[in-house]
Amino acid sequence: MSDTTLPVIGAQAASTTKIVPVILSGGTGSRLWPLSRASYPKQLWSLVGNRTMLQETACRGVGAMFEAPIVICNHDHRFLIAEQLREAGIENARIVLEPAGRNSAPAIAAAALLAAESDPDAVLWIMAADAVMTRPETLEQLLPVAAAAAQRGHIVVFGMHPTRPETGYGYIEAGKPLARLPDASTVAGFIEKPDAETAAELVASGKYMWNSGMFVFTAHTLLQEMEVHAPVVLAPVRQAVERRTGDLIFQRLDPASFLSAPDISFDYAVMEHTDHAAVIAGDFGWTDIGSWNALWDIGEKDGEGNVTQGHVCLEGVHNSYIRSDELLTAVVGLDDVVVVTTRDAVLVTQKNRAQDVKKIVTRLQAQGRKEAEAHNRCYRPWGFYESLIQDARFQVKRIVVMPGEKLSLQKHYHRAEHWVVVSGVALVTRNAEQITVHENESIYLPQECTHRMENPGRIPLVLIEIQTGSYLGEDDIVRFEDTYNRT
Q: Cis peptide before 41, with omega less than 30 degrees from 0?
C-alpha cells in the first residue's frame, strides 16, 4: 500500500497492532565507573528516582498497547535482571542470553528473529536499558505514529532536540516529512559521535537531532533490510536463534554461532545504509546517562549548584556532582568537579573531563586490577557476598542468602571454611550430614569436604565466612549439583 492511499494519522491515534518492547541490556557503562562495572552495570542501579534504569525502561512498555517484552542481556546478569523485572511486576518477559556482547546489531537481529517466529509483522520498539526520560508521556503520544510508519515499511528512529554540544551521541538530520503522517520525516543523514568542534557546529545549525538509539520497525522489514545490508550479521544470528537452548526461565543463544557475528552497531550495520529510515522528533527529557556530567545535568541542585547523594559534607563547593554510597565523603573548595566514592574506589575528575573516565578503566584493566570489572559486593542468584578482610592465607566474608535459596553442592581443594550465623537459620550439608545452624552458632568445613548451605527460613540468612588456606581464589570450586544450572 502506498503512502497516498493511507489516511492521515495524528499523534494521538491509537494503533490496533500491539508493540513488542525490546530492551538491550548488554552494556557495562564504563564512563560511570566506579559505580558501574561489568559485574553490576549502570542499568541495574537506581541513579535517578527509586527504580533502577532497567526497571524504568521495562515499565515504559507496560499496558494495553504492548506485548510481553524481550530482554537481551549478558548471561552473567541473568538472575539480577530476572529479579529486578520481578520486583517491577513484570513476570512474562522473554530473557534472551548473549554468550558475550557483540554490539547492538546482532542483539536487535536476534530479537527480530524471535518475534518473527510467531508474527513476522510484529512491531518492535528497541530501547537501551540505560536511558532516562523525564517526560515519557510525550513518547507515549508518538509511539502510535512510529508504529504506523513501521507498518508502512519504515525503520523509525526517535530524535531528540539537542540541548548542548555532545560528543558521546550520534546526530540525525531530518529530511522531507512523510506523506500523510504528521511528526515523521525521512532521514537526510547520520553523523556518528563527532568531535567537540563539529558537535558545536551541528547544534548551532539547528538542523540536527541527537540519535536516541530507540527504533521502531516490523520484524519483517528489519530482517529484509539486514539481508540486504548486513547479511554477515544476520546469518550467524539466525543460526544462533535456531540453535538456542532453554536454561530455567531463560533462552540461551548458541554461543559458537552468535560469536561468529561481527561486533557492529545497528547504526553502522543498517541505519546508515537503508533507504527506509525515518525519524520522529520528540522532547522526552531523554539522556543515556553516558557520563557523570549527565547526572549533574538532570539532577536536583542545591543553592550552590551541587547535586549530592549519600553521606556527603561540602564546604565552598559549587556546580559539582558528589556521590558516596557508603563512606563519608568531604569536599572543600572545589568547583565543577565530580567526586564518587564506593567501598573500594574513589573517582575525582573535572566535569568537563567526565567522558575520559573510560580511559581510567582501560588502564586499570591493563594493570589487572579487579576494581575495573567487579565490585567488592558480588551478587549471585541466591543472594550476595562481600569481602571484609583479606590477607595471604585468610579471608573474611559476609554472606547473605535469601529465603528459600541455596548455594551449590561443592568442595574446595585449597581452603577450609568456618561459618558463623549472625541472623537467620542455615541448613548445612557437610558430607553425609545435614546440620541446622542457628543464630550465634557456627560450623567448620574442612578442606575437600563436600558441603552446601541453604536458607530454609523466611528472613535473609546472614553469616560470616572465615576462609583459611594456601589459595583463596573464587575458581577453587568444584560443583556437584546446582539449582541455577551453573558450571
A: no
Structural domain span for residue 60: 3-287
Handedness of CA 48, 49, 54, 56 (dihedral sign): negative
Nearest to 415 by CA among 476, 463, 465, 480: 476
Kindly write down the DSSP assignment for every residue of 299-322, as one continuous string: SPP-TTS-EEEEEEEEES-BS-EE
Phi and psi, residue 201, nearest 5°: -65, -40
Same-domain status, 303 and 363: yes
Residue 486 lies in a domain: no
Partners of 435 in beta bridges: 428
From the CB of residue 418, how many other CB atoms can be counted at a distance below 10 Å?
16
Q: Which residue(s) pair with 442 in the sheet?
A: 420
Q: Is 286 helix (H, G, I), strand (E, B) or coil?
A: strand
Tens-place pLDDT, residues 68-101:
999 999 999 999 999 999 999 998 999 999 999 8
pLDDT per residue as tens digits for the range 198-229: 889 888 888 888 989 899 999 999 999 999 99
327 inside domain: yes
Domain boundary among 370, 390, 415: 370
- State the maximum Cα–Cα separation within the chain, in Å, rounded to a whole number: 78
In the chain, the number of structural domains is: 3
Q: How many Cβ atoms sit within 10 Å of the Cβ of residue 36?
A: 24
> What is the rounded distance in angstroms from the CA atom of residue 358 to the CA atom of residue 100?
20
